[in-house]
Amino acid sequence: MTTITSAAGSCTFGSGHPTVLAAMLINALKNADLAQKIIHNDFDEVKRLAEVQRQDGVGFLQVMIAHPEMDEPDKLPKVCQAAHDASGLPLYIDSANVDAIRRTLDVFPFKPILSTSGEESRLVPMLQLVKECGAAVICLCMDGDGIPETAAGRLAIAARIIERAREIGIPDEDLVIDPLVMTAGVSGPDSMPVTLEVLRQVKERYNLATFLGIDNAGFAMPQKDVLDLAYLLAAMPAGLDAALLEPPPCSALGRPGTTLLFAANFITGRDPY
């Protein structure tokens, strides 16, 4: 299991624990208005979005502010501080900028989760930072050659990242494997089965916590929220522990996505209460 922390407490996920949502509204690439406000040192919208997502019942918040006009080392600490102060939730600091993350951890004295791919130029500096600051890390099953089409290819990347992390001294409980969700509208018909097979194999071989960016599944498709929720519910029995997903009301089902998540956790035995 993996635990990340904040001022208000902690979020634990992994085998034997309920699947949790990571909320993704604080994303400067997907929200041009938010990006401009951050660039001009207006963090009120960051705080509003953080509070809205807390009320939705998510486990932790993604903060992603990479943007062509953004001074990330300057802005990332301020955005993370604002998001944390407004919500009290743990953070997924989604950045490849090691300097920006270091500056952020100077003002965020809790345990966040970071992310890395298997690309050597990114992998080594990020794993060293993870070890140094005691963070957890999402390990993306992709490298400099892209995303393998097969489960075996993605598992090979996961194995390489796990081996390197262990050599550096990162404990297994701080490693979270992301088999990667492909966009359903443009990927092959076996894209979802491949991802689910990687989930199963990660659990069988390593019993590490898992993560998926499920919001990518229904991108640019009609009734995107229905497709995303369908993917979420299918992935949970395969071993999904945490999912990046906007938790909007699902118009086709007439209830919030988080309510369905709670119900699925109960039905699958992840949350007997």
Description:
The protein is of the alpha/beta class. It is built from nine helices and twelve strands. The chain has helices spanning 32-39, 44-55, 72-87, 98-107, 120-133, 151-168, 191-205, 224-235, 257-267; strands spanning 2-6, 9-13, 20-27, 60-64, 91-93, 113-116, 136-140, 175-178, 209-212, 242-244, 249-250, 255-256. Strands 5-4-3-10-9-8-7-6 form an eight-stranded parallel beta sheet. A two-stranded antiparallel ribbon has the order 1-2. The chain has a two-stranded antiparallel sheet with strand order 11-12. Helix 8 (224-235) links the parallel strand 9 (209-212) and strand 10 (242-244). Helix 6 (151-168) packs parallel to helix 7. The radius of gyration is 17 Å and the shape is globular. Residues 249-254 have low confidence and may be disordered.
Order of helices and strands: EEEHHEHEHEHEHEHEHEEEH
Measured between the Cα atoms of the first and last residue, the distance is 19 Å
Mean pLDDT: 92
Would you tell me the structural class of the helices and strands? Answer: alpha/beta
Which stretches of 5+ consecutive residues score pLDDT under 50?
249-254
**What is the molecular shape?**
globular
C-alpha Rg (nearest Å): 17 Å
Biggest sheet record:
8 strands, parallel
Q: Compute the number of helices.
A: 9
Strand numbers in spatial order across the main sheet: 5-4-3-10-9-8-7-6
How much of the sequence lies in strands comes to 15-25%
Total number of strands: 12
Helix content: 40-55%
Summarize the structure in short.
The protein is α/β, with parallel strands linked by helices and 273 residues long.
